[in-house]
Each structure stands twice: as C-alpha cells, then as structure tokens.
Specification:
homodimer, alpha/beta, Arc Repressor Mutant, subunit A, Oxidized Rhodanese, domain 1, 4-stranded parallel sheet, 11 helices, globular, DNA-binding
DNA sequence: AGATCATTCAAGCGATAACTTGAATAATAG
DNA sequence: CTATTATTCAAGTTATCGCTTGAATGATCT
C-alpha cells in the first residue's frame, strides 16, 4: 500500500474474485446458502477431505464471503450476508448469459429437448395458495428436514422412479433444489417430462425463496 | 461434462470469477468501462507489455466479460454488456463492505481524516443545473476529451497545485474520475480539503454517470 | 490433569498462471 | 507482391494454487 494504493485496492478486489474461482469453493458456498454448517458436514457433502475443506473455508473467510463462530469443539461457518449470495447469483447470470459452453451443458442436462421456462417464486406461491400445483423438493432428506417449502414432497433423484406413480398425472409439477447452482431440479424436471408429466423448475432454490421472506417449514 | 454435469457447470462459473481474479485484468476492465479501446492503448494505460495485455484480454474474452471486433489492423475490445460492470461493482461492494484491510487503505488515501460522504449523481445533476457547484474531472486529458460531464474542468492530480488559485474558495467542489475502482477522485478531494476547500467525491465515475443516461460532452 | 474429538497448521508435490522473449499471423499501404 | 503495423501465438521461467499427509492446537469430558 505504501508503494501503490491503487494496486493494493485492486489486489483486495481480486482476492474476493479469486475466492470464487475454484469449483470446490463454489460447492461450499452453495451448501452454506442452505444454512450454517460445521466443517465436517461440509466436507462430507462436498466430498473433500477435512483438511482441504478447512483450507478452502479459510480462504473464503479471508475474502469475507463467509464468517465463522465456535460452538463447543466445532467451528460453524455461514455466509457473511446477502451480498455473498448476490455475488454468486451474478456470477451465474454472467456465465449463463454469455457462455455458449454453459448453454450446451444445460442442454445436455435436459436431454436435448428445450427446457421450459422456470416458474417464478411469486407464481409458485400463488399456485400453492390455490392448490393447483405439486411441489417437489429434490434435495437430500437432511436438507429437507432442516427447512422446505410448505407442502413440498421430498424426493431424491433416485427415488423418482418409485414415487412417480403416486403423483397425479394431470397435476402440474414444480421442482426445486438448492438454488441456481444446483442441477438436481433440472434433472428431476427432465426425468418427469420424459414420463409425460407437466413439470417445470422453480426459479432459484430454497435460499432464494427464504430470502424473499416466504414461509419455510422445519420438521419437528 | 459427460463425467459430471454439475462440476462442469461450476467450472464455467469459476472461469468467470478467475477472469476477475488478477489486478491486471481489473485494470483493463476499468479502462474498458470508459469506452472501447485497442490493445496498444490499453497496454500503455495499464503499463503492461503488448503481448501480456493481449493475453489478459483473451482471457477476459473467454469469460465473455469483453468482446472484440476488428477495425482495420487493430482489434478493438469493449465490455460485453452492463452485466460486466455490475459484476465489478458487486465485487467492490463485497470487498469494501467486508474487508477491514480495504477500509484501512482508503483511510490511508484520505490522510487519516474522515472522508465526507460521496455526492449522489442525482444531487450533482441538480446542483449543476442551478450552478452551485464546481465539477472537476480528475482523469488524463485524453479520457476527458473522449467524454466528460458538461461543465467539468479537467485537471490531473499533478495539476492541482497550479489550478487551485483559479477556483472560487467559497464554491463547493465535486470531483470524479473513472469510477469506484479509481482512486484519483479520492486523492483530489484529500488534496483540496487540505487547502481548505469544501470538496466531495462523486458517487461512481463517468461510466456510471453515462449508464444513468445523463449528458456526456465530447470535445470536437 | 489426561483423553478425546474437531479443526487448523505445515511441508511437499504436481499442475496451473503470469510474465518475458521471439516468432507467426492478418490487414493495409506502397 | 513486399513492407509495415497491430495483434496473437508459442516456449520457457518463476511463482502460486490445490491437494495430500502428518503433526499441532483448542475445547470438552471423565
């Protein structure tokens, strides 16, 4: 800084961007968007080793994207504030809007067929109120238990085959998962549409839903 | 992608973040926020070698943050769209809001004294209309020539000493430069306040002013 | 205090990125 | 067509990052 204040400033901005530049850390942030977590839980969810996970988390903390507190022996991490979420969203928007590569990957996910437009959270809330929609929560059971959209059915991708017969073929289905970074809902919609259902994806995931101030049900 | 669609997606998002993770590229983006430029001009402004500059620009192009076109022998680069600017702004917001380090650097720039709040662009426009403010453009002359706020005086930091006597000591001064990443206006305000002037900084720079749809004057 | 558990630190390895130098490509002028 | 100018490509060097392994810290429980 004594050398060049300008460069020092840019170095700080770059530090934040660099923290977002590794897929492993984006996975961690996506998990943390669901709620605060300990190191071990994060390591298990992301498939990283404990030590590696810890190092990534410290890097995120250095960039002030996450903060941590102690709870007994455990250290609990959480997103610093909504800015972190906004930054992740914007990163995704720029990538998806601009990169043809991403387009192709998403096409691959939806089996080459054109995926329908996602349902806005406002529309979904209205249709839940009038009972004209079946809502699927396509996340692991523990995340569902920790909080989900009221009335949503929890099913993992592997459970789809078994649960499909329980669904009313005439009903419209809306699937959601962790959020824009998460591909579970994409895959669920693809699978359901192949079986003739009218399925669409929710715009955003549970973090965005919660961010809107909409109701979230936690299992007792 | 055939291995893991999810990881491939995250890799794309990470690519965008990685493009923003080098100070050199942030400098280039800041320059491009002023308007489109050729490789040589960018290299000169940022102090990079031509080859190095070209490589950074290609990296930004791969992340779709900038696009390019040919103009004769020259290749002209520009920001892809407003999303790039938004992403830079958000990066800055997160860094400045969260990093104590950045706080200290900015304090250092303002000589330890508390800097006044920046003037909003709306306020500045109103006060220009009523003629109750002196506007300083603290950028290099060529950038001033390419476009500036109507009525603004152009002065570089090194010129401040000479030009100060020409200014009405009673007038309120508002300084602006390239934008939030740029520290020229910060330094100008500090220098002026040391000399007893009532000086404040514009919130944002010329790119943001232009983005608002406000008038920009180009020298004939 | 000693044992135990969760997390962090430290050292080492392979891969990747930034920068330099020198050559290759593309468009234009003579 | 050749020369010129602007940009890009390619190879090489140094520094940094991500990951692994093994040891060190810090808080709790007996």
């Amino acid at each position: 800084m004594s050398i060049s204040p300008k460069l020092a400033l840019l170095e700080e901005y770059a530090l934040v961007a660099r923290a977002l530049s590794a897929p492993a850390r984006l996975m961690l942030l996506e998990q943390l968007a669901q709620g605060e977590r300990g190191v071990e839980a994060l390591a298990e969810k992301t498939g990283l080793t404990i030590a590696n996970c810890s190092q990534h988390l410290q890097q995120l903390r250095r960039a002030a994207l996450v903060t941590s507190r102690r709870d007994g022996k455990a250290v609990i991490y959480r997103l610093t504030d909504a800015n972190t979420l906004t930054l992740m969203d914007l990163l995704r928007i720029v990538a998806e809007r601009n990169l043809a590569q991403v387009e192709r990957i998403l096409r691959g996910l939806s089996g080459g067929e054109d995926a329908p437009e996602p349902v806005s959270r406002e529309d979904l809330a209205a249709r839940i109120a009038e009972g004209s929609v079946t809502v699927l929560d396509v996340r692991p059971a523990d995340e569902y238990t920790a909080g989900h959209i009221p009335g949503a059915l929890n099913m993992t991708l592997t459970d789809i085959e078994r649960i499909v017969p329980m669904l009313d073929p005439a009903a419209e289905i809306v699937a959601y998962c962790r959020g824009p970074y998460c591909v579970y809902a994409h895959q669920a919609v693809t699978a359901l549409r192949k079986r003739g259902f009218t399925a669409r994806r929710l715009d955003g995931g549970l973090p965005e839903w919660r961010e809107d101030g909409r109701p979230v049900l936690t299992e007792a």
